[in-house]
Amino acid sequence: MTVRSAVIPAAGLGTRFLPATKATPKGLLPVVDVPAIQLVVEEALAAGIEDVIVVLGPGQDGIREHFAPNPTLEAELEERGKLDALAAVRRATIPSVRFARQAEALGLGHAVSVAESMVGDAPFAVLLGDDLIDPSVPLLRDMLASHARTGASVLAAMHVGAREIAMYGCIGPGEADGDLVRVLSIVEKPDPADAPSDLAVIGRYVLTPAIFDALRRTSPGAGGEIQLTDAIGLLAADERVFALPFAGGRFDVGNPLDAMKAQVERARTHDEIGPAFRAWLNELLR
Ligand code: G1P
In the predicted model, is pLDDT for residue 14 greater than 90? Predict the structure, then answer.
């Protein structure tokens, strides 16, 4: 079945970025010149997703405004002949994006569950805004192709260091099937000593609609939150779930240090400022 919808949970409080996120939703923090959430929406659309559903928390209406048309600003830029700026505004105007509301921060699993009626009884993708994927890496496209071949849920995964696994959902792997690895079990943020592998879930998922029933059966887990990972564990007991390991081209913008690395990487390869930024960086590091 073709995957039409993607759910992008954006309701997090962004506590690691305070005070920048005091009045600005975390998803609107720019990576050089484009808000992270826009990069994620563009990734979904580029992979062929037609219906993007962003899950908003309280105080995040700026995200809705970001994707809405702004005719006054467009007219002003046009009149002043600022055509590059006009193109940037038009690129950010994606009125087809729909919004769901998560009234309380009850966890990632809960954020996905509030989009159920909008997704309907069909497989769908989930993209987490804290993980940015290099646009030249066709990760979501590959995951959708794996889903089309198997009909099963597919999780993006990456091998990480032994200590790092404590920051991720960790996969208990089974047999390989081509590029895919069967997921037999999954545990959220394990103690490294108990981790079943070094295979971490990265924030891209293609899920069958049975996940919604699994979410209803999921009690609060790590951090007292309804974890998507725990629901995927229940799903894996009922039907096949696969992981698609990939390497490289992922930036974690969920914490300030890694967000700064993503800034540098995007600035370094930016069409306009890239050459001057690289020259400055070389000078700085001499
Ligand atoms: C979330 C998920 C976790 C996953 C990670 C990927 O954790 O709960 O399973 O491995 O995203 O970035 P968070 O980073 O929101 O704590």
Answer: no
Give the number of residues written for the chain. 286
- Over the chain, what is the mean pLDDT? 95
Q: Which atom of ligand 1 is nearest to the CA of 203?
A: 6
How far apart CA 60 and CA 110 sit, in angstroms, is 17
CA 42 to ligand 1 center in whole angstroms = 21
Task: Tell me if 11 CB under 6 Å of ligand 1.
Answer: no
pLDDT beyond 80 at 50 = yes
Identify the CATH assignment for 5-284 out of 3.40.50.360, 3.90.550.10, 3.40.50.410, 3.40.50.150. Answer: 3.90.550.10
- Ligand 1 nearest-atom number relative to CA 108: 8
Three-class SS state of 106: coil
The domain locations on the chain are: 5-284
- Do the beta carbons of residue 168 and residue 200 sit within 8 Å? yes
- Report the Cα–Cα distance between both ends of the chain, in Å, rounded: 54
Contact 207, 233 (CB under 8 A): no
Q: How many helices (H) and strands (E) does the chain have?
A: 11, 13
The sign of the CA dihedral 69, 73, 78, 79 is positive
